[in-house]
Write a structure and sequence with these properties.
Elements lengths: L1 E2 L1 H12 L8 E5 L3 E5 L3 H9 L5 H9 L7 E5 H7 L4 E5 L16 H5 L5 E7 L8 H11 E14 L10 H11 L2 E9 L4 E8 L12 H9 L5
Parallel strand pairs: 1-3, 2-5, 2-6, 6-7
Antiparallel strand pairs: 3-4, 7-9, 8-9
């Protein structure tokens, strides 16, 4: 699970539009890392833009000798801290970087009495590794404040990367049933697999509604036993 270059490009764009001024706290599904290559100058230009005068020195202090490798990583919480968001949390059973050790296959409100809500909830390559998709997306719904935002970056065609791939139709149903507003959508194509990147806004405090498409409804109607 990690935040790659295309996500950082999007964050850069959001920053330019003043998006992060509206965000006071954030929680991520997964103890996220930012994956950066040494030749990704745009990432360092982004850090300079948000006020980090010597990004190489700062990242060297975070990751140590890994700065000399072709690829290196930093915990995602530092990016949000650079953006002025100090109230950062994450959820992962590995509990890395102080993550809450909640099992996302379970309803975290019920099982862990966790009721805090956030301005931004991210799902950068996490839910495809969980079997209980209903609990995962209900948890995201419950974690997001009214008028808060969700960012999903998930496999579209993943070559067996996780348990699930996602389609545009899945998100269309998720949006329509729960009255979310789609803010951004893009499919990224890569050599091994493609991914869906979508930002949603939660516009009300209604309970989570499970999406069921018309094909499923018709199948259920045709195959329901009459008493």
């Amino acid at each position: 699970m990690g935040i790659g270059g295309h996500c950082i490009d999007y964050y850069h764009n959001l920053y330019d539009k003043g998006f992060f001024k509206k965000i006071n706290n954030v929680i991520e599904l997964g103890s996220q890392l930012v994956y950066i290559k040494n030749n990704e100058e745009d990432f360092f230009n982004f850090l300079i833009k948000i006020g980090i005068s010597k990004p190489f020195d700062i990242i060297t202090g975070i990751v140590g000798d890994e700065i000399n490798h072709l690829n290196y990583t930093i915990p995602a919480k530092y990016i949000y801290n650079f953006l002025g968001i100090d109230d950062y949390s994450s959820i992962d059973v590995d509990e890395l970087f102080g993550a809450f050790g909640f099992d996302l296959n379970k309803d975290i409100k019920t099982c862990y009495s966790f009721n805090k809500q956030y301005d931004l909830v991210t799902n950068h390559g996490t839910t495809e590794h969980c079997f209980n998709q209903l609990s995962c997306f209900k948890n995201i719904h419950d974690l997001t404040k009214k008028n808060g935002y969700m960012i999903h970056s998930l496999p579209h065609h993943s070559n067996e990367h996780g348990l699930f791939d996602y389609t545009r139709h899945f998100f269309d149903c998720l949006i329509n049933y729960n009255k979310y507003k789609a803010m951004y959508f893009k499919i990224y194509d890569a050599s091994k697999y493609s991914s869906i990147f979508i930002t949603l806004k939660k516009r009300n405090d209604k309970d989570f509604i499970v999406p069921v498409d018309n094909v499923s409804i018709n199948h259920i109607k045709k195959n329901t036993f009459k008493r």
